[in-house]
């Protein structure tokens, strides 16, 4: 079992990811695909007159401030356009994909954080009305039904809070929690860079290998959203996932290349 998370930033070649996955699924391998949609969500939010607001926590992590209107735009793009676009690509390639959010069947579950601490103009503020959280529990029953019946699940945030409220969760950390829950052999985190770069954005500075016991010491090299990927990788290997690979989803055969060791391998 391999969990593949493909990001939502500019430059990602979803056709290439789906074609590569299709070939491997038809050769008998089992996958679950988790996807993002941040770039398209930003574009749609701007067009709807409710532009995105990003906040930075005191510990340096950047996230989307998700008020109720932002959550509805987020669901429209992630669960609608992005999810069904990927499912359609896979169906056209002969893969019986099923698209679900983490809210469906409470696949992803966690605590709703109504407020978030953010640094603005050098001061720490508490922002209320947030609809975010962290995946604390993965309910695998529905996924196992689908996998055993020959379907390929295509998953996306949001998750469900314990009260059943939709919450925006980080897709990389959700994929890491999923990989741990399913005892996956590997977790691939595919994005629009070749892996973790020692000197971002210099792609020649790719870090090829990270020892599993030492992942968090590499956080200093991670810029912006890559920090959550490194954190997710640390959580996955600590939870027993065999290896985590940060790979490039911009062209070629992204899944096969990552499994062959292209990118940054955490093991």
From TrEMBL:
Which chemical reaction does it catalyze?
A: [amino-group carrier protein]-C-terminal-N-(1,4-dicarboxybutan-1-yl)-L-glutamine + ATP = [amino-group carrier protein]-C-terminal-N-(1-carboxy-5-phosphooxy-5-oxopentan-1-yl)-L-glutamine + ADP
Instruction: List UniProt keywords, sorted A-Z.
Output: Amino-acid biosynthesis, ATP-binding, Cytoplasm, Kinase, Lysine biosynthesis, Nucleotide-binding, Transferase
Any GO molecular function: kinase activity
Q: What is its main location?
A: cytoplasm
Q: In which pathway is this protein known to take part? A: Amino-acid biosynthesis; L-lysine biosynthesis via AAA pathway; L-lysine from L-alpha-aminoadipate (Thermus route): step 2/5
In short, the EC number is: 2.7.2.17
Annotated transmembrane regions:
none
Subcellular localization(s) per the UniProt record? Cytoplasm
Every Aspartate/glutamate/uridylate kinase domain range: 1-246
Task: Name the InterPro entries on file.
Answer: AceGlu_kinase-like_sf, AcgluKinase_fam, Asp/Glu/Uridylate_kinase, Glu/AcGlu_kinase, LysZ
CDD domains in the record, alphabetically? AAK_NAGK-UC
Query: Site (Transition state stabilizer): which residue positions?
Result: 5, 229
- Described purpose of this protein according to its UniProt entry: Catalyzes the phosphorylation of LysW-gamma-alpha-aminoadipate.
Instruction: Spell out the family assignment given in the record's similarity comment.
Output: Belongs to the acetylglutamate kinase family. LysZ subfamily.
HAMAP family per the UniProt record, alphabetical: LysZ (MF_02082)
PANTHER family reported in the protein's UniProt record: [LYSW]-AMINOADIPATE KINASE, N-ACETYLGLUTAMATE SYNTHASE
What name has this protein been given in UniProt? [LysW]-aminoadipate kinase
From the UniProt record, report the name of the gene that encodes this protein: lysZ
């Amino acid at each position: 079992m391999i969990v593949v998370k493909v990001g939502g930033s500019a430059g990602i070649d979803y056709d290439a990811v789906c074609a590569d996955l299709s070939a491997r699924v038809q050769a008998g391998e089992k996958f679950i695909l988790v996807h993002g949609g941040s770039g398209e969500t930003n574009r749609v939010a701007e067009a709807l007159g409710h532009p995105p607001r990003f906040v930075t926590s005191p510990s340096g992590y950047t996230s989307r401030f998700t008020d109720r209107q932002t959550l509805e735009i987020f669901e429209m793009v992630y669960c609608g356009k992005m999810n069904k676009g990927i499912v359609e690509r896979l169906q056209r390639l002969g893969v019986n994909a099923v698209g679900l959010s983490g809210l469906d069947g409470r696949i992803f579950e966690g605590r709703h954080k109504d407020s978030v601490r953010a640094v603005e103009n050098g001061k720490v503020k508490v922002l209320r009305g947030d609809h975010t959280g962290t995946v604390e529990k993965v309910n695998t029953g529905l996924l196992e039904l689908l996998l055993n019946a020959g379907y390929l699940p295509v998953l996306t945030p949001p998750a469900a809070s314990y009260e059943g409220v939709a919450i925006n969760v980080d897709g990389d950390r959700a994929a890491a929690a999923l990989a741990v829950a399913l005892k996956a052999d590997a977790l691939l985190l595919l994005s629009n860079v070749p892996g973790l770069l020692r000197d971002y954005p210099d792609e020649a500075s790719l870090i090829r290998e990270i020892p599993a016991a030492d992942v968090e010491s590499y956080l200093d090299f991670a810029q912006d959203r890559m920090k959550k990927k490194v954190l997710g990788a640390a959580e996955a290997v600590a939870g027993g996932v065999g290896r985590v690979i940060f790979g490039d989803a911009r062209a070629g055969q992204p899944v096969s290349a990552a499994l062959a060791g292209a990118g940054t391998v955490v093991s």
